[in-house]
Write a structure and sequence with these properties.
The chain is of the alpha/beta class. It folds into 2 domains: 229 residues, 3-Layer(aba) Sandwich (Rossmann fold); 53 residues. It contains 10 helices and 6 strands; from the N terminus they run βααβαααβαβαβααβα. The chain is globular.
Length: 287
């Protein structure tokens, strides 16, 4: 009997691939009819990622709140005989040991990894070595043909990436539109950098294209799109205006998250009190 397949999207580019999980959620019933299932909800996959990456403290979680998250998702995935699909961009820069833990949870599956890559911008780490990242995942998978790279077009079209994603996993996207899928992120304004920095970004994009071309990987898209167009240093007034707008939106988002967190903490305190009261009522020995 042929092994079942599992496709793990680990991101890399923050903009081009972040909508994929939302698209999978929106169309989960249609995909289920096609034999494709998403066993981990967004929040579950997030907890699994910070569990695997051991970053729970950085995100404000206790170890107990994320312990076993990935194993639970995988146990759910083993049920049935459909193809599994996961998406969590935080996993892209996992270490070899962390990748091994991820893949160990999917033993028995033919695992494929998808990585979305777009042209570097002024927010990209200047020393990001895409080649080393690709080698890390390819080595863990054992077969380079199971590592798929989706190169975002120059306009970062979500439809193009969604179509390529579906082609790799094995489903068509013509009847699975992206209208209203995911809240559009506020574009990050460009950093005020020198002309030399822009030249360095173009060199970095060329290096990424060469690193992909020199490896026997399943690459979708045009490698030339990895080289950003020549850009002029932005006008300071325009830059300040766009930065101010992005900062205002970021502050509103932080405020909403803080309020949501306060509400959840209050609710948890209430539930804990009820639990203790019930234990005390059921067991008189409980002080």
């Amino acid at each position: 009997m042929a092994k079942r397949k599992a496709f793990l999207h680990v991101g890399l580019d923050d903009h081009s691939g972040n909508f994929l999980d939302a698209a999978l959620e929106r169309h989960q019933h249609a995909l289920a009819a096609l034999g494709v299932r998403r066993p981990g909800a967004t929040e579950e996959m997030f907890r699994a990622a910070i569990e695997i990456r051991r970053e729970h403290r950085a995100w404000g979680f206790r170890r107990a709140e994320v312990e076993g998250a990935w194993a639970q998702i995988c146990r759910r995935g083993y049920k049935g005989n459909d193809t599994l699909v996961f998406s969590q961009p935080l996993l892209a820069d996992s270490t070899p040991d962390q990748i091994a833990l991820l893949l160990d949870g999917l033993r028995g599956f033919k695992v494929h990894v998808l990585m979305t890559v777009a042209a570097p911008d002024t927010w990209t780490e200047p020393d990001l070595d895409l080649g080393a990242l690709l080698d890390r995942w390819a080595t863990a998978l054992g077969k380079t043909e199971r590592l798929h790279v989706l190169v975002a077009p120059a306009d970062r079209s979500r439809r193009t990436i969604w179509k390529a994603f579906g082609r790799v996993v094995g489903f068509g996207t013509a009847s699975l539109p992206l209208d209203g899928v995911g809240k559009p992120a506020v574009p990050r304004p460009p950093r005020l950098v020198s002309t030399e920095r822009y030249d360095a970004l173009r060199d970095l994009g060329r290096r990424w294209a060469c690193q992909l071309a020199s490896r026997e990987l399943d690459v979708h898209g045009d490698l030339s799109d990895l080289v950003p167009e020549a850009m002029e240093v932005p006008d300071p007034v325009t830059l300040v205006t766009s930065t101010d707008a992005a900062l205002a939106e970021a502050l509103r988002t932080v405020d909403r998250l803080a309020r949501r967190n306060d509400t959840l903490e209050t609710r948890l305190v209430g539930l804990e009190r009820k639990r203790r009261f019930k234990r005390g009522a059921d067991d008189p020995s409980v002080a």
